[in-house]
Amino acid sequence: MERLQKVIAHAGIASRRKAEKLIADGKVTVNGKVVTELGTKVSRNDDVEVNGVPIDKEEPVYYLLYKPRGVISSVSDDKGRKVVTDYLPEVTERIFPIGRLDYDTSGLILLTNDGDFANLLMHPKHEVDKVYIAKTKGVPTREQLQQLKRGMKVDGDYLKAVHAKVQSTDSRKNTAIVQIILHEGKNRQVRRMFEAIGFPVDKLKRERYGSLDLRGMNAGDYRPLKPHEVKQLRQLAEKNVE
Fold this sequence. Notes:
Distance between the termini: 25 Å
Order of helices and strands: EHHEEEEEEEEHEHEEEEHEEEH
CATH topology of the largest domain: Alpha-Beta Plaits
Largest sheet: 9 strands, mixed
């Protein structure tokens, strides 16, 4: 027996918090009866419907994808562009990406059908390291990188890096390879921060997410997460969320 909101979240319908609101609003039925009690528990034999639509009681699955550039972090695109789920054609569960990587950014992205897990990782207080490698036009100084770590207001958003350092430079091309670590993931955050200090990003890749990396993978490759990897991510996120 599991709590109703958890079953809805695992089915990928909504996060657990949104599932609780659906229940409270009378949008959920169990075996044909409207249920508004949040403590309700159901089994796999119970028929659960959300807004009149039966939910599939899928087992939770977790995947890591090396997203290529030029791919949308979504399950569909009205312009017909490639989306991340196109790279997992053999997965039958209704998976969706956790967070996003910009269209022209490559690297590690996670996909799941577990809305509760996704909501936990995207919590603003989770403080899971997201490590990016940026190729910048121009070579930022140590003081300029300190600006990224101190934080800045850009177009009304407060943006801040946990860490930033130059890994290498090319004096002939006047470019630098910079590692930057974030705990949040606002829209085009890395690019906006570097533009704010005068160093536009030419290429960007997310190479690590928490304890996960892309070793042994090429762009477009994916793999299921191992049980201990899922557990590690949960523990990383939960230790910083009250």
